[in-house]
Amino acid sequence: MSELRRVMCVEDDPDIRMIIEFSLASVGGYEVCLCPGGHAALALAPQFKPDLVLLDVMMPDLSGPETLAALRQQSGMKGVPVVFMTAKAMPEEVEDLLQYGATGVIVKPFDPMTLPQDIRIYWEHGRDIAHD
Amino acid sequence: MTSHMTDGLPPAALDRFEVLRQNFVAGLAARHLEIQSAATAQARQAALHRLCGAAGSFGMDRMSQCARVAETLALSGPPEELAQALALLKGEIERAAACHPGLDPGSSATRCMDCGSSPQ
């Protein structure tokens, strides 16, 4: 995990998926895999091998925490930083999300121009934890 | 849309962003219908939640805030407050539709409160 290149985005809202893809690919220059839900993420993660997963919390098929728990069961996904995205930004809710094992939480709405930098900070933080 | 969001983007990326934003605005009527016709309070809350996140990420801050207020009221808020919040949200949706090309020309909105431009 020497460089952040591949980002998997799991988000059920199609407009938000598109703006995330724009942000991460056009602004950030990352290779992006878009997933409309948790089941798709679980199916695609072994092939895509993301360096970081950006994961919506509220989704109709699998919730973000459920998806994170299932991803952690996959070989190669145990140390991959996962960043939750949520519109619920109360400090105690953020703390709850971190308890699931996420590296960070990004609050929606996000700024598509700064999102690539924001996730890089979390990726570096996650990498540091993995090396400790 | 606040112009500073896209400052410094190359023209091709700017064009791509504008297409995405227009697609989002074009879908607002369907989102509004989903909110209005939701079968349950939970479904309405979920639709408002998605709209809150999407609108704000496209720079439509007022719409995002209106959706967030309505979302917080959707499950157990006083019905009259929810109705008021939904009316404000409807106004923001109409303004956005009137502001951006090819969208709901019959709207009574006068200007977009987010980007400040006049109806086409």
Radius of gyration of chain A: 13 Å
> What best-fitting shape of chain B do the alpha-carbon axes yield?
elongated
Helix content of chain B: 55-70%
Structural class of chain B: mainly alpha
Mean pLDDT of chain B: 82
Tell me the fraction of residues in β-strands of chain B, as a range.
under 5%
Structural class by sheet pairing and helices of chain A: alpha/beta
Strand arrangement, major sheet of chain A: 2-1-3-4-5
Mean pLDDT across all amino acids of chain A: 91
Using the coordinates above, name the CATH class of chain A.
Alpha Beta
How would you characterize the largest beta sheet of chain B? none
CATH-defined fold name of chain A: Rossmann fold
Name the chain pair whose interface involves the most residues: A-B, 19 and 25 residues
Measured between the Cα atoms of the first and last residue of chain A, the distance is 14 Å
Assign the CATH superfamily of chain A: Response regulator
Low-confidence stretches of chain A: none
Q: What would you report as the Rg of chain B, rounded to the nearest angstrom? A: 15 Å
Largest sheet of chain A: 5 strands, parallel
Query: How much of the residues of chain A is beta strand, in percent?
Result: 15-25%
Number of strands of chain B: 0
List segments of chain B where confidence is low: pLDDT < 50 over at least 5 consecutive residues: 102-111
